[in-house]
Specification:
Blueprint: E1 25-34, E2 37-47, E3 52-56, H1 63-70, E4 78-83, E5 86-87, H2 93-99, E6 100-103, H3 114-119, H4 135-141, H5 158-170, E7 176-180, H6 188-203, E8 207-211, H7 215-221, E9 224-229, E10 232-236
Parallel strand pairs: 3-8, 3-9, 6-7, 7-8
Antiparallel strand pairs: 1-2, 1-4, 4-5, 9-10
Helix pairs in contact: 4-5, 5-6
The protein binds adenosine-5'-diphosphate and magnesium ion.
């Protein structure tokens, strides 16, 4: 079921390196300054292929900015990020965003069916060459049946909507999936289902970085937990 859509990490025609001997992510000395404020300072860590790394830390400690730097929504002020051996800074940001997909805290779906939402990224010029997966298969991978394809996206529960957002990211077959507090906007029951989805994706070999406020969640989801404070890595255990 989890393998019912391709995980080939195809970078057709882009000439990008995908070196399996390298970590999925290697971050060295990453920094980001906003005006006078240093929001990330000397952040270094690696994520192995197939690992789930959980990131925690107080509000304002730089977790979201870190994820946005990892998929180039925010440009770092310094340091390096490698994705399977490719220097992210020397890549087209659009390409990096396909290889390293970010799913935000609040599920955002467009008016229309679930299928139309899953197909949306393929309408971007930059993704024209990307193979379209079997959308029903991707929905099954996040624990939703094929019957969801035709559903109106606006009628879904919070947990269902968040899983559709994760599915939409998975449709591009990213090498790394970034999840920013994926359950914080959800009720307890929906949060449990999304957590289970994350565990299943990781069991299927997906590399994941999940930011969470919830220490229990961090410990159950992550093989390692990275704690941040004031833009720095406090520890990784
Ligand atoms: P969190 O750990 O809660 O996710 P963030 O990464 O969102 O924290 O934010 C870290 C710090 O960076 C905060 O002080 C925030 O105000 C600041 N910050 C985030 N984005 C911007 C921005 N675009 N411009 C200026 N400051 C920002
Ligand atoms: Mg945040």
């Amino acid at each position: 079921l989890l393998r019912s859509f391709p995980m080939t990490f195809a970078s057709a025609g882009t000439g990008l390196v995908h070196d399996h001997r390298c970590p999925a992510l290697r971050v060295r000395n990453l920094s980001r300054v906003f005006g006078e404020r240093s929001v990330l300072v000397g952040v270094s860590f690696s994520v192995e292929a197939g690992e789930t790394l959980a990131v925690t830390g107080p509000s304002g400690s730089g977790k979201s900015v870190l994820l946005k730097c990892l998929n180039r929504l925010i440009e770092p002020s310094g340091g390096t990020i490698e994705v399977f051996g490719t220097d992210s800074m020397h890549c087209d940001p659009v390409e990096i965003r396909r290889r390293v997909c970010l799913v935000g805290q609040v599920p955002v779906l467009f008016p229309g069916t679930v299928e139309e939402n899953l197909a949306y990224p393929f309408s971007f010029q930059a993704n024209r060459h990307c193979p379209r997966p079997d959308f029903g298969g991707v929905l099954e991978a996040v624990g939703l049946g094929r019957t969801y394809l035709a559903k109106d996206a606006q009628t879904l529960s919070g947990g269902e909507a968040q899983r559709v957002c994760i599915a939409r990211a998975l449709c591009l077959d990213p090498e790394v999936l970034l999840l920013d507090e994926p359950t914080s906007a959800l009720d307890r029951a929906s949060a449990g289902v999304v957590e289970e989805t994350i565990r299943r994706l990781n069991a299927g070999g997906r590399t994941i970085v999940v930011v969470t406020h919830d220490l229990r969640q961090a410990e159950t989801l992550g093989r390692r937990v990275m704690r941040m404070r004031d833009g720095r890595v406090e520890d990784i255990v």
